[in-house]
Amino acid sequence: MRPSAHDTASLDLDAYLARIGYRGALAATREVLDALHSAHVYSIPFENLDVLLGRPIRIDLASVQAKLVKARRGGYCFEQNTLFVAALRRIGFKVTTLLARVRFQRSEVGPRTHMLSLVELPEGPFIADVGFGGPGLTQPIRLVEGESQAQAHDVVGLRREGHVWVLESRGRDPWQDLYAFTLEEHFPVDYEAANHYTSTHPDSLFVSNVLAALASPEARLTLRNRQLGVFRGGRFERFDELGDDELLDVLKTRFGLELPAGARLSCAGLNG
After folding, report:
1. Does domain 13-271 bear CATH number 3.40.50.1110?
2. Tens of pLDDT along 58-79?
3. Residues linked to residue 112 through DSSP beta bridges, in sequence order
4. pTM of the entire predicted model
């Protein structure tokens, strides 16, 4: 029995393209993949606010479109990459969805809780991922070992550990692992289980911290609780400690995220 694949028929492609400001060609080429990937990460912020507001994270395509496209919110990997993969498949790209084990800023082995995708092109396979947040990809990268590949704000590469691929990044620090994955295809039911852990488990980073990120061609903004970082030219230009009102203002003005009237964020990372 073959598991159910991700839905694509219900995607409002025109609305998605308008959301990311893309007006270019629609063909399954590397140039289009690069352009769509960059347009997405420059337009839709990474964020976990609904987790902290006690709202369930729905990752079916209809819910993702309603939130990220119609409501102009952001989301985390399952939301972001579900939307991106649906658009790629509608355009005609051959895409395999994968599941990774995050290593970034972890000292212990964690569960597989990060969605990414493999895109097949005439030039070879590429890794695409619009949902990792801060140090994540701004452009797709070739699935090749040992090659440094430039991004908008840093350099990334892939290495092999047996059958496992490891994405590593060199930004303001020496090479550091971001996540590890295999090329085994995963399906919506796999992501539902991983999403449940990510949005509800007490050990999940996302239930105890305010997290947001948004890239542009010039810089990368990252927010973790009260700390705002601006990464530009290989270094942090600014690192602010935010008060309650400043935090809400930064979410609105820098990330385009406005909380519902009367809503307040509360979590261990913010209150500690």
Report:
1. no
2. 999 999 999 999 999 999 999 9
3. 101
4. 0.96
